[in-house]
Design a protein that fits this description.
Shape: globular
Structural class: alpha/beta
Strand content: 5-15%
CATH superfamily: Metal-dependent hydrolases
Order of helices and strands: EHHHEHHEHEHEHEHEHHEHHHH
Strand order of the largest sheet: 1-2-3-4-5-6-7-8
Distance between the termini: 15 Å
Number of helices: 15
Length: 331
Amino acid sequence: MRHFPKAELHVHLEGTATPSLIKNLSLTKGIELNPKIFSTDLSRFVWNDFADFHNVFEEFFKTITSKDDYALMAYLYLAQLAQQNCVYAELIVAPFHAIQRDIPYEHMLQGLSDGIEKARAEFGIESRILMALMRHYGPTMAMHDIKRITEQCHPLVVGINLVGDITQYEIKAFEQVFDHARSKNLHLSCHAGEIDGGPKEMWQAINILGVERISHGVSCLEDSKLVETLIEKQITLEVCPSSNVILKMYPSYAEHPLRKLKDAGLLLTLNTDDPGFFNINLTHEYIVAQQYFNFSEQELLAATQQSIRAAFIEEPLKRKLLEKTNYKFTF
């Protein structure tokens, strides 16, 4: 499965950082971190629930202090993907975190570009950036961020994604932010239908924000009309099976609706979300789909190709990447 063609649309760059990388950065820079965030063998980060998950992230992000760190994170993850025969990836990156650490937006952007270009030159993997707007900081901060993003436009920045704690603001509060992004020709996606919120969140993302894709979206099956709308509008779901199980949205893979989503005729892709936190990789997600949900090789390839078709890139590049996914099936 490692050599099976893949593509990824939903991965938080900050969540790709491994415990060993963060530990090395902390030692190199002399930054003291709470040792309890690491397992004793540095194989994983240690956290107990969704809130603790975010606390660990805030702790380890103290080590990300320069554009070179962004370049390193982007390069290392894309290199890892290339080794798994992944031809394309979109990296979700939160500029708020950089600015919070006194890293200027333009420095962060340069670092990301350097890492992406280095990976492309060495491995041939293509990548683009989605800038994350932090939902829990509200629409005023999000508007500030989107104006910065559009004023310092970059060809690798192709869209935005609304992320973060859903208990603070409803999705509909960000309508003007998304309108502004759309007016500047940025593509639109949004986290919805994941931990909480259900179909209501997804309806707001579709009808008010006008998103082209939905991050997660697994709770859509609770509303048959919503499923019909997603199919009619050809809105792709960025499904992250292991993330949903590890974060306890579902108690096990047996309860996860991936198979039902596929059988309902929804457009879906396979993604890792935060692989550094979950100690997984993209190959793992394809194996999960095959072993727990009986995905055939044809269905796995369909997920890869849907990632490319739904990617926020120009059509000629889509055609080129689709050609790279030609695969000889075993029967």
